[in-house]
What we know:
- Helix content is 32%, strand content 27%.
- It is α+β, with helices and mostly antiparallel strands.
- Strand 11 and strand 12 form a beta hairpin.
- Helix 1 packs parallel to helix 5 and helix 8 crosses helix 9.
Amino acid sequence: MERVHCDVVVIGGGIVGLSTAYALSRLAPGTRVVVLEKESGPARHQTGRNSGVIHSGIYYRPGSLKARFAVGGAAEMVKFCAEQGIAHEVTGKLIVATGRDELPRLHALVQRGRENGIPVRELGPAQIAEYEPDVAGLAAIHVGTTGIADFGAVAERLGEASGAQVLYGTQAVRISRRSYGVAVGTSAGTVVRAKALVNCAGLQCDRVARLAGDDPGMRIMPFRGEYYDLARPELVRGLVYPVPDPAFPFLGVHLTRGVGGGVHVGPNAVPALAREGYGWGTVRPRDVADELAFPGTWRVARRHWRYGAGEIRRSLSKRAFTTAVRRLLPEATEADLTPAGAGVRAQAVLRDGTLVDDFLIREAPRTVHVLNAPSPAATASLPIGREIARRALVAARP
């Protein structure tokens, strides 16, 4: 049996795990880091399957980790991409109110943006047309610091620059605490011995926490986000978002011009039947059973069934999805929408049915668990990585 010795072992080769490895190399040069990733390469799940948006931080509650890390992280991400030659662009975006009932929420976003130190410009219908001639709305706000990036390429570069030993195709299957720290048994037969462990396993993070003998106090509920490509990308110049419902940690169906020039439309938010279920045809009984056994799942269902029913309808009916798109882009037709790849959001849910709305990082002996890091985690990955790395270095002390 092969044994690998290091200072910190990171489970998860997405952008947060690889950013943590990168931060460890900067904060404490010489730190030996091993990253375990069960897939054959980096960024195969949330990181590589999102809309690629560098978020400004306008949506997030002032003082929250999301607000703190996204605002600074957006500028850092742009700088990192520029220095590393990674495809990116600062496009700005519009958040558009299409109904009068959305106007108070739009004005609240203006105030929140100002509280978070984000410059915003309020627009009327004529000014909307100056930015997006084919977009309809009663009012909007323009957020100039929003951009787009190839987050998969960012994750890969972070891994390379970290100097960490990244073991792909290697899943953690056993975790035990020892006098020196932790021992992690892997699917490859290797045992990794480390002074501290960081759990950045995303869609599997609650299971990894339990594998370590810790009660995470939450459960991952997977929500699939389904996308279409817009056949007439000339209808959209940049990024266009609806006004989000503050009761949910989802931003609604939006229009995103990607780094390759095409336009993504979506995503919705459909409960998935597997942790890594990128289509209705992927069903994993263990994942479904885990959800049904957790009391928070039933409380979410009772509280938000109307919202969920609407999302499922838009998933099963292209016509219904198109109707949602046409609120922002009246010229769009069903024929303009071509199915594209889907992503799955790892959404933490508490026992009382609360959808966790902030990044959630918990510590245990010799261990740091990252238990909720969905959007804007890619945007904020550099400062998040430093925060996790600092905690890991403390956990690694004798």
